[in-house]
Amino acid sequence: MTDLASTRERALAALREQTIELPSWAFGNSGTRFKVFGTPGTPRDPFEKISDAAQVHAFTGVAPRVSLHIPWDLVDDYEKLAAHAADSGVAIGMINSNLFQDDAYKFGSLTHPDAQVRAKAVAHHAQCVDVMRATGSKELKLWLPDGTNYPGQDDLRDRQERLADSLQQIYALLDEDHRLVLEYKFFEPAFYHTDIPDWGTSLLHCLALGERAKVVLDTGHHAPGTNIEFIVVQLLRAGRLGAFDFNSRFYADDDLMAGAADPFQLFRIVYEIVRSNALAPQPWDPAGSGVNFMLDQCHNVEEKIPGQIRSVTNIQQATAKALLVDREALTAAQRAGDVLGANDVLMDAYSTDVRPLLAELRESMGLDPDPMAAFKASGYAARIAAERVGGRQAGWGA
Ligand code: PSV
Ligand code: MN
Ligand code: MN
């Protein structure tokens, strides 16, 4: 058995280092295809989105980067936006491209049968790389909506060849200290086939590109019942897990708050990260094995800044529990074939109330132990509601 006091100290040290990246689009209004409900105080531009994200960092101490989506976060001067982020206490994180809102992409973007459309989609990434250079971002993130709705609609194999070629061209645009992270999703918006439906397809393309290409695992992008922690293990073994898009799902790509639907799954995922010593955050070697813990969420009915704070603290709780697993006892039980004993060790950690440990962590960082209450008491929400009129939708208002 490992000494509990030293496990606790190690957990506190690791938690102090953990960072979680926030998506700019979490701060805009969002909804479903039925209705987008507005929220008072919603940001009117990318500068205000960053100001709101900085609040999440100010109260949690572990969310120092904001991911941008281009062109949702279009501004004239990206250096000014990065300076605003720095003045607010945060930095610009990943740059997400957008291949899903242009009429030209009806039949695909990087896989489109028409070379001109593919060239347009590649050129959009050159624009994104310029934003990376201006903001100091080191990661270009791609999610592809490409796919078909009917058997025979297009040639599955040709589409893979076109995709490989387009990705090569994008990879060639990157600087030496940049990396490309490639997301997968099993369906939607296409329903018969998707061109990057799973981690295996994403991994194959990344392996073909080079060592600075990594896979993004969005927790909402799997069929129900998928063992996501197993995918985490495989990608970590290959040194190709680049980032998480954390969120919760009940049905499909629900983008609800991380840890809300299935905190046990989140714990199991983070345990595999801890088990592989992959928790350490930036700065990472672009070809190295650093994993970016990002949120990819939308707050349709709940308040946005508190929704992000809750998501961050849910991930911290899962991480704290994962760090408390008595790994020596677990290994001993596993080697002895003690099935129930091994399961007990894991469940003991999961059942621990880690809220006091996290309160201690925050106090040691000079923060209020209760970030939700502290944000509420700060008066920021009332201030932006009074100051900002006409806040925008998460994406389409860019
Ligand atoms: C669409 O499914 C999506 O939610 C992907 O998860 C991307 O990461 C996100 O949009 C932003 O492009
Ligand atoms: Mn995502
Ligand atoms: Mn998604």
From TrEMBL:
InterPro entries per UniProt: L-rhamnose_isomerase, Rhamnose_iso-rel, Xyl_isomerase-like_sf, Xyl_isomerase-like_TIM-brl
GO BP of this protein: L-lyxose metabolic process; rhamnose catabolic process
Keywords annotated in UniProt: Isomerase, Manganese, Metal-binding
Highest rank taxon of the organism: Bacteria
Pfam families according to UniProt: AP_endonuc_2
GO molecular function: L-rhamnose isomerase activity; metal ion binding
Protein name: L-rhamnose isomerase
Source organism (scientific name): Kineococcus radiotolerans (strain ATCC BAA-149 / DSM 14245 / SRS30216)
